[in-house]
Write a structure and sequence with these properties.
The protein has 14 helices and 7 strands. It is an alpha+beta fold and 534 residues long. The strands form 2 sheets. It has a 5-stranded mixed β-sheet with strand order 2-4-5-7-6. It has a two-stranded antiparallel ribbon with strand order 1-3. The chain is elongated.
Length: 534
């Protein structure tokens, strides 16, 4: 029967989860710590009360009794001197002693409240003092000054006997107060020793609890998790047939079983996943090759259009110079349209060439002070800045490893747009700032211009997307697209701040050092270089 109960108990404990073990352990520890804490609080309270009793009552009571004795001695000395000489100055100590006697008697009465034996001794002292004062002190003090008091001489023996009674009563009171103070000190020391023992026991119990908690966590959680981690690393190393052995509390065993079930499913799906990965790699390679070919096509197409476009532009300009005034007004207008279209086409092709070069040519990364880039950009845009009356400021800018040409193109497009798209009749104000953002630098170019509507915040970074006609604002619609490509090539992002309403704020991030760019194909680069040489 005993063996059967032990098996049932073991089977019941084996179903406990980690949460239940922790809850039971925490409850037991809290109960034990609460009991020890209550005992410690009682010991502290007892220590505090005994310390207060000793410091605030017993010791002050004994000290006050000595002060009272001194006051009575002053009275006796003053009365004896006055009685023997009749000199009034001897009454000053007597009167001062009366005042001190009243104060210290009241103080002792307060300190001895609740102490019947000590109060009885104090009352005996007061009675003896009253008898001495009624028989000797007051009558002697009332005699005329100038001559010795006959009463003092006649009652000298009686006065000595009465004051000896006062001394005896004071001695009994002081002896009792000394004994009570010694008893209070002994009680305090015994309580302090008990307090030290209790807190040592509390510290020992806490250390024992910490050791039990540590060992319980190690056996119940750490060891099963380490074993599970070892099995998982074995499986991750390629041994997918390695089984996972469930150990520990019920929930950890259940977790191990679920992981083992997942392992079995992974074994069945591994072949399919590998095949899918190979297909995805092939598609990614095709996509990279397609992107390279598209960029190469854009470059070659724009480069090859340069020669016929130059001929069109040259001959239309010759027609305008040679036959200007010989045709009717409509003919001159047609020629102007052709010249303007050729010029805009030339601008578009040049911008497309510059766009295709980003990330491909002149990748001469070097340590570059961004303030120097901004100053060079402002110098290049000085004419348009002066014509618009623009005010351009900037904060302290960092040094980055970047391509100087591309950084110049980036800031030239951003500052040029801020100057171009200003509010009519209002001088543009532009500010450039930079702040650390984790591992990146976040730049902001803020202006007070016409702004960008939130619905166009993404569209403005698409190549050839314009929000205004060429009659209102000149340009090809490729500037912000080029900025986006430059920023992304340097490991950052660019966007329009949608929360800024007083104009436009373009924010972009740049890495302190650009990411390593590996060439996807060497043949397109060689073809592009050959085309540029042509």
């Amino acid at each position: 029967m005993t063996g059967g109960k032990g098996q049932l108990r073991g089977r019941g404990l084996s179903t406990w989860t980690t949460r239940r073990w922790l809850r039971v352990g925490a409850t037991a520890a809290l109960v034990l710590l609460t009991l020890l804490g209550a005992l410690g609080a009682w010991v502290l309270g007892r220590t505090g009360s005994l310390s207060t009793e000793l410091v605030d009552r017993r010791s002050p009571a004994l000290s006050t009794s000595f002060i009272l004795e001194a006051a009575l001695l002053n009275q006796e000395t003053g009365i004896r001197g006055y009685g023997l000489t009749g000199t009034p100055d001897f009454l000053d100590p007597y009167r001062q002693g009366l005042t001190e006697q009243a104060e210290n008697t009241a103080r002792l009465t307060e300190l001895l409240h609740g102490k019947r034996a000590a109060q009885g001794d104090l009352q005996a002292v007061q009675d003896a003092v009253t008898r001495w004062q009624e028989r000797i002190a007051r009558p002697v003090a009332a005699t005329p000054s100038g001559t010795p008091s006959l009463l003092a001489i006649e009652q000298a023996a009686q006065g000595k006997a009465d004051f000896d009674a006062i001394r005896a009563a004071l001695t009994r009171l002081q002896d009792r107060l000394r004994a009570e103070r010694a008893q209070a000190r002994d009680d305090l020391m015994a309580t302090l020793a008990l307090r030290n023992w209790v807190f040592s026991a509390i510290a020992g119990v806490m250390v024992l609890l910490a050791a039990l908690v540590f060992e319980g966590l190690r056996r119940g959680i750490n060891v099963p998790l380490e074993r599970l981690g070892t099995d998982a690393r074995t499986i991750a190393g390629g041994d997918f047939e390695h089984p996972i052995t469930p150990t520990g509390p019920a929930d950890l065993r259940r977790l191990s079983g679920e992981i083992d079930s997942m392992r079995r499913r992974l074994v069945h799906e591994l072949a399919f996943t590998e095949e899918a990965r190979l297909r995805l790699d092939a598609q990614a390679a095709d996509l990279r090759r397609s992107n390279v070919e598209l960029e190469q096509f854009a470059y070659v197409a724009s480069h090859d259009l340069q020669e016929p476009l130059r001929k069109i532009s040259s001959f239309t300009q010759l027609l305008r110079r040679r036959y200007a005034g010989q045709l009717d007004a409509r003919g001159d207008q047609y020629i102007d349209f052709a010249v303007d279209a050729a010029n805009r086409m030339q601008t578009l092709i040049n911008d497309l060439l510059a766009f295709s070069r980003v990330g491909r040519l002149r990748n001469t990364h070097q340590c570059l002070p961004m303030e120097q880039v901004v100053e060079q950009t402002l110098s290049a845009l000085s004419v348009s800045i002066e014509e618009a009356g623009a005010i351009i400021t900037h904060d302290a800018l960092p040094e980055l490893v970047a391509d100087p040409t591309q950084m110049g193109m980036l800031f030239q497009n951003l500052i040029g747009n801020a100057v171009k798209f200003h509010r009519p009749g209002k001088a543009p104000t532009i500010h450039i700032s930079a702040a650390r953002d984790d591992d990146l630098w976040r730049f902001s170019v803020t202006d007070n211009g016409i702004g960008i509507a939130p619905e166009y915040a993404e569209q403005v970074f698409v190549i050839f997307q314009r929000l205004h006609t060429k009659d209102v604002y000149s340009g090809s619609g490729i500037g912000l697209a080029m900025c986006k490509k430059i920023v992304e090539f340097h490991g950052g992002t660019i966007a329009v701040d949608p929360d800024y309403r007083d104009g436009t704020r373009i924010t972009f991030t740049l890495a302190p050092e650009p990411p390593q760019v590996t060439s996807l194909a060497t043949e397109p680069l060689a073809l592009q270089a050959t085309a540029e040489q042509a």
